[in-house]
Amino acid sequence: METLRAVRLTTEAARRLRASRGTGRVHSAYARTLNVELDDLGNAGWVSLHGPGPIPSPFGIACESRPLTAGLEGASVGVEGDTVVLDGRLRIVLDGAKVRDTALPTLACLPSVSGCLRRAFAAVTAGLLPTAGALLAGDVPPSDPLARTAAPALARLYAATWARNEADCLAAARPLLGLGPGLTPAGDDCLVGWLAGAWTAGAAGRRLVEAMGPDLLAAATHLTSRLSTAFLAAAVNGEAAEPLHGFVLAPTEARLAGLLALGATSGADLLAGYLLARAALASGREEGWPCR
Amino acid sequence: MPVRALVWPSFYQDSIALMRVAEALRALPGVREAAALLGTPANHELLASAGLSTADAKGAGPSDLILAVDAESDAMAAAALEAAKGLFAARREALEAAVRVLPRTLDSALSHLPDANLVAISVPGAYAKFEALRALRRGLHVFLFSDNVPLADEVELKQLAVRRRLLCMGPDCGTAYLNGVGLGFANVVPRGRIGCVAASGTGLQAVASHLAAAGEGISHGIGVGGRDLSAAVGGAMTFLALEALAADKATEVIVLISKPPAGAVVPRLEAALGAVGKPVVACSPGIRPRADGRVRWVATLEDAAEAAVATVRGVRWVRRDFSDPQAIRARLARLRPGAGRRGTGVLGLYTGGTLAHEARLLLEPLVGPVAPDLTILDLGADEFTVGRPHPMLDPEARAQRVREAGGSATVGAILLDLVLGRAAHSDPARPLASAIRDARAAAVADGRSLVVVASVVGTASDPQGLPGQVAALEAAGAEVLPSNAQAARFAALMVRPDLAASLLGEAP
Question: How many CB pairs under 8 A join A and B?
């Protein structure tokens, strides 16, 4: 059996492994990631294994090298103390791994929305960022089918967030669930970012997340994939992937670049939702878009 | 409108894989649109609004993958879906093969291949030092592809390498040729009698390709990293590489391609080059072209290759601004009449950092005063590659910039490079040619004249094939020159016709 050392893991991954009854299965395995579903924990039972570098999920474990994954789908998983064993073929040793706290703060500094968008626009042309960014900047959104579907929902989500109206937020979020390309569809990533933005914008935002979170997850169960629902569930509890967490704490240019490098467009979609929520909740109640 | 779809139940691929498969299908003949989406309710509506919905796909659930294709004929759509199956199967086979043979650690790799004497490392920069140290301590040479390696780590690694007489090529080493094996982004070039020591990637590729075109080959091409001649590193690997090539029997002439060396390093570098005992051609921005004993300093990559060829053949080398001035005059005559209004700006959109730097050095003194909007962008630099592949892998982002430049009244000439070779995009000229057509058409519609000037780094043996790539650019209306330096000079002539007197020896 091959052994791989974990070098870092999130607090949420550590908590889930402790809470598990020691069994699970490999849900999905692809080139960069291996997703494990621990038994009997529902949406809080997902743990993902990655190679070194920033941990791309709120419940992730970074290993010293990328775990080789072929043929492991459906394999049994055992958790024994500080060791995770996959199908008797691969042992992940957690002892000595650093624990990284990726719980979001309830109040974080407001990034420069227009500055972030300006830099992100230069690097990102796909996913929902161009649409959300155009709305925030007061520009005309793109006209491709994804943008045509998403633009009204994003505009409504901004307005509902600005009005602190959780029922309208939920109604606006529903069309975004499961929308767009990606293993975690772009609309879901955008909503994860929106949840993070609301969570970190102070009491009003937290109230929105707490009020609509359960209904949003109930809708996600029917409208998107189980993996996406797990990401949304983590976001409802204020947990973030490491690149998003780092950007929230310190929205520097380097951390913006790290966030945008996440996935195909996932990082950009997270940013779109995050900026949308932060801009709406920072704008007070005056009319119009905040960063024209 | 033939639309076909396939559904894979509970099929999980990461987002980048899905995006690449969709892109690959869109590039197939006759395919108008392709999408790879999970079967969520929202995506069913999205597919319907894009005209990609089919009865087959309607039953797909949120965990199922839908692959939908709109093509010019039913047969083309079916062929595209078959191709998708093949692409997914190839990924699966690659992963399974990796399980069979790919080791997870250096020790495991050495147990599979105990005679290996070189390790290629491309882990993220923060981790590169540890892997490189492991390799060096085991007596292995290192090809360090990783970028963002801290300078202090590079110094430590190279000090250890020098003590152990091992090569530590990099960091950020894009290309090397050792014993006829190309590492990283490498053109298919013959082995030969000219050895190279180069800072990083495209400079070495350009020189190797020029040598191949002239019928010469590379003995070894050793990358040393862009910071090797900085004051902190002190040229550690450059000096070791020069020693290695000096001792190598197959190497008759040495070419040095470097970034500007630190002032403190220059005297040691000049002394080391003089002590090599073989003829040396050195190309380093900021060092005046001159002959200094057996060392000849030149200004451009093309000059370096030509001077090396002349030296190894024992003939006199004469530097030229253009290899065929008569052909240039003919092109100027063709481009002059009825050309319409032309902007005075030059916009360089580069994928190769060394090539961009060379173009900037050539153009600034030529057009600077008249074209204050001279802009040379290295689109492979970190700030342009966040969230997307390097433009040598994915040409679309640059193609879009070319299109946008077609709408600018100030741009008179767009200057481009195109880098071929292993690991580069399989057909980079195609999207670029399409963008060139669009840009030139936009300019014409606005009553302007826009000239697109390009050079191609590559050989006929490269997977993409040099002649076909050049032909594709020329068919789109690009002026393709034999080298980056000639392309830069030609671009200068497009906005400063009066330069013809000095560059071509004729009246404007």
Answer: 145
B397 interfacial to chain A (CB closer than 8 Å)? yes
Calpha distance A236→B28 (Å, rounded): 42
pLDDT digits (tens, 9 = 90+) for A262-289: 888 899 999 999 999 999 998 654 433 4
Asked if A149 lies within 8 A of B46 by C-beta distance, the reply is yes
% helix, strand, coil for chain A, step of 5: 50, 15, 35
Could you give the CA distance from residue B184 to residue B176 in angstroms, rounded to a whole number? 7
Q: Is A55's Cβ below 8 Å from some Cβ in B?
A: no
Low-confidence ranges of chain B (pLDDT < 50): 507-508
- From the list B15, B40, B388, the residue facing A224 with the nearest CB is B40
Question: What is the structure's pLDDT at B508?
Answer: 41
B202-225 pLDDT, tens digit each: 999 999 999 999 999 999 999 999
For chain A, the C-alpha Rg in angstroms (whole number) is 19
User: d(Cα B123, Cα A53) in Å, to the nearest integer?
Assistant: 9
Which DSSP letter does residue B265 get? T
**pLDDT tens-digit readout, A21-52:** 889 999 888 777 889 999 888 888 899 998 88
| ipTM attached to this prediction | 0.76
The answer to whether A219 faces chain B, any CB pair under 8 Å, is no
Among B399, B407, B412, residue whose Cα is nearest residue B472: B399
Q: Is B40 on the interface with A (CB under 8 A)?
A: yes
B146 neighbors B170 (Cβ within 8 angstroms): yes
Q: What are the backbone angles phi and psi of residue A95, rounded to the nearest 5°?
A: -60, 130
The reply to whether B35 touches chain A by the CB within 8 Å rule is: yes
CATH superfamily of B106-313: Succinyl-CoA synthetase domains (3.40.50.261)
CA B359, chain centre distance (Å): 15
CATH 3.40.50.261: which residues of chain B?
Answer: 106-313, 325-504
> What would the CATH number be for the domain defined by B325-504?
3.40.50.261
The sign of the dihedral angle between the CA atoms of A89, A95, A98, A104 is positive
Selecting from B43, B383, B397 the residue whose C-beta is nearest the C-beta of A179 gives: B43
Three-class SS of residue B427? coil
| Contact between B367 and B495 (Cβ < 8 Å) | yes
Domain B3-101: give its CATH code: 3.30.70
Nearest to B42 among A28, A178, A266 (CB): A178
